[in-house]
Amino acid sequence: MKRGILVFLVCGLLIFSIFFAGAQEKGVEALPPEPAEEEIPAFGVEKEGKEALPAEAVEEKAPSAEVEVKPAEPSEAPAEELEVKEPREEAEESLTGRRVLPEEAIPEGMELVLKAYEVKRGDCLWDIAYQCYRNPFLWREIWKYNQYIKDPHWVFPGDDLIIPTYQSAEVSKEAPREPEVKLEELEPGTENERDIFIAPPDFKFDGCIAGVKEKKLMTAYGDTVFIDLGKSQQVEPKTRYSIYRQGEEVIHPTTGEVMGIMVEKIGVLEVTSDIEEGSSTAVIVDSRKPVEIGDSIKMQLKPKERKTEE
What are the tens digits of pLDDT across the range 244-253? Predict the structure, then answer.
């Protein structure tokens, strides 16, 4: 009986394996052929009813990457590339520290007088024109003399402006002369009270900052400096000097001569008791900007001297 059961199981396994193999063969035959092999033929292989593309057609549709592109001849180059861009005159003026005045027709019987003004926080050309001319619409007159300002809507604290003003010229009938461009006349001592002014070329300073006691990134209020004035110049303790920094030269529009120099007051120093023959030690008691070696100094007038001059 056991043999009959084993024979029955073996026969069942054989029948099942045969049935499974037949079903697998039917499933493989039912799968469709892959389209990629039939739809994308290789170049140069002939198919039934169709010919392969000729070699010439292939070359026309796919140009070779080795084709050289001829450079443009000088005559074909754009005009912009042929022009050699030279630096602007304005850039040269700013590098050389020169400010050339514009040529302008001065009204008959008047003379042009130049003043200086330092822009403060909140200033604009409109407000400055009102302060100087009582007419804000004349802001263009100021901008015309300060062309280093690229955008007239933007001025910044510390900018040095030249303010053109007119005043009557006393011209005698016997010897008439043409109106001139001149600088504002400076009375002795008034420069110590001004933040900025245009000094004539013959304006003299008393000395300069010769050195600093401590090497710092910034020398300012409270720091000790050395000046090139001493006992030989009759310097006394507690004497105060204004510290100035020389800026751009103001050039006459017609003659090209130097009319003056923009001078800015940047601080005040006071001489200590340490006074040598040709030098002295001083302390900075007021500073608006960092003080540098080489800045000019000029002694401030004492109250008694001011009263006698007035």
Answer: 999 999 999 8
